[in-house]
Amino acid sequence: MVDVLNRFGHLKTPPAGPFRFIALDVETAGKTIAGICQIGLCFVSNTGAVQTYSVLIEPEEPFEPFNTELHGISSDTVAGAGTFPEVYAALFDLLNTHSLVQHSTFDEKALTSACARYGLPMITSHWTNSVTVARQAWPALKGAGGHGLANLKKHLGLEFHHHDAGEDARASATVILRAEDVLGMPLSHLTIKRQLAFQFENRSGD
């Protein structure tokens, strides 16, 4: 397997929580949104410290040249990687007990489609769209490049490598943190207290 994960210094295993929230990003291999080939996570502590993790996935479908050119992942890259059910099972409890952040709704849709493809339960976490938050914090960008990560990177001076899942997850998390500074308040639903309560409710319902 070609080692593309550590070129950006991502962790090889997820760190210990709990976290204030987790930003999530996926890359896909080809024509279907369910064909996830990389999951990236950015873990944000209550102090605003961030840690990133990414994992390659064998998508069990062909790679399209356009996708590979975009993110640099190919069938050779994922040789020996786990399938979605294997990777998802290892991350399920972590994701299901934290609030999640995504930039647009693509990532949630991709996970939902992959779960449907393999007959797996979808996580029930609360999702926050950092595009929506960015629109509140920087309304002037509407019509001036928009609120996509590429334009936010330019406007906010963010440093990340677009279309690597771990890097994009970190960018999404940074957008949330920067937006909270601009808005002058934290997003009330992105709290460790809520996450722990959610985790406790899950356990009591077993």
From TrEMBL:
Q: Which GO annotations describe the biological process of this protein? A: DNA metabolic process
Q: Is Signal found in the keyword set?
A: no
Give this protein's Gene Ontology molecular function annotations. Answer: 3'-5' exonuclease activity; nucleic acid binding
Q: Which InterPro entries match?
A: Ribonucl_H (IPR013520), RNaseH-like_sf (IPR012337), RNaseH_sf (IPR036397)
Q: What keywords tag this UniProt record? A: Exonuclease, Hydrolase, Nuclease
GO cellular component: a single term: cytosol
The answer, when asked if Nuclease is one of the entry's keywords, is yes
- Give one Pfam family, short name only: RNase_T
Q: Can you give the residue ranges of the Exonuclease domain?
A: 20-185
| Protein name per Swiss-Prot or TrEMBL | Putative exonuclease
**Source organism of this protein record:** Octadecabacter arcticus 238
